Amino acid sequence: MVDFEKLKKLPLGEIVKTIREERGFNQTSFGQMIGLDQASVSRVERGERWLDSEELGRFTTVFPEVKVALPLPADVFKIMASGPGFSFEITVNSRETLAKKLKMLLSLIEDS
Fold it and tell me: For each successive 10 residues of the chain (112 residues), what is the average pLDDT?
């Protein structure tokens, strides 16, 4: 049985993995339920990809009890920028991941 109070403290990817494993699904079958391929589920679980609003909606429709453990929208950071010859978007669900992504982006800019 999943402890949703403990789950609240986890990043989204770990919440997805915990629910998936607790329900006995592999990544492929779980992904089919929410409209993702296996590779996308894997990236979500590793924190490399966020669920968009439609995917999150399907996730909470299939597993409504998980809503209490999901991060609030205030926990989602989204940065978009574009300029001559470039465009990027970063969406993360924790301050730590945001800091890592921004450091990576700054190093790419400095190297170019």
Answer: 72 87 93 93 90 81 76 53 66 67 74 64
Instruction: Assess contact for 87 and 81: CB atoms under 8 A.
Output: yes
Largest CA distance in the chain: 52
CA distance linking residue 5 with residue 95, whole number of Å: 20
What span, in angstroms and rounded, lies between the C-alpha atoms of 50 and 52?
Answer: 6
Closest among 83, 84, 78 to 101, alpha carbons compared: 78
φ, ψ of residue 79 to 5 degrees: the values are -125, 130
Q: Whole-model pTM above 0.70?
A: no
User: Using CA atoms, how far apart are residues 94 and 64, in angstroms rounded to an integer?
Assistant: 23
